[in-house]
Amino acid sequence: NIRLSFYINNSELIKTAEDFEVRYENLGKIITKYGKMSKLAYDNQIFITNYTLATEQLTEKLFDIDLVTELTQRELNFEIGEFVSPSKEVVDELVNLNNDALILTMNFVEFLSDISNEINNNNLFSYLYKSLIDYMIEEAKLYIKILDRIIKREAGDPIFVTDYVYRYQLIMKDAARFLRNFCDPIEEEVFNKLDSFSKSFQNLSEEYISSNLSPETQKFLNQRTKNLVEEFKKYLSRIIQDVLDSKLHFIIVPLFLDTIYREVNYFKYLLESNN
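and the corresponding structure tokens:
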């Protein structure tokens, strides 16, 4: 997404973004070679959605570029299954993968921060404006927090989970807001609906801040969050299908819509995992 947001004369930035893209894809290939994911992850489409390949192909057509879809094709072959007593070789490979992903993501945050600063100083133009770049930074930082806990093998705790859910609600709020701003302005119904989702996630996040951490309250708020996320997911599904059918237009690459959709799926997966 960031690679496609620059003018063609920003060749060094495009090259750097493409390098990050390739390195993340190489890490993804390590995961896909096992060919399995849990039923919960599979059902929530956290790696690949019903729209991933179609939005990639539409992006290729509109931007006259050749996206590497090998990883997407491999993800289509995922099967439902669990690791049963993984070998030491598998464990070592995944430990190394997490360490590599942590370093890579820290470097990616630095890259995005430099871009954000350049945009803020009017030295750079990107179709993904500054607040959207900052949104990507916050999401990457959340990923770093999870990787760090996995690497240190720290157990989850209610405070961490609550903080994580709260931060992801803010990401959902911003996702709805960005889609609203990228929507064709004549689509008043879509604009208003996305605006409503953004406000609903904001209100729910404020309730998390003001509420106590009792198990009953957490269960109640988590259920409300799940309901809202499920509703948001269904609406995004409709939007993406309308874009693919040329019934709706956004001033953004089609691939970005599927990226947001996968983020929503992942949040739903997290909420269901913590039941």
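(Above: one complete record from the training split.) The chain is about 75% helix and 0% strand.
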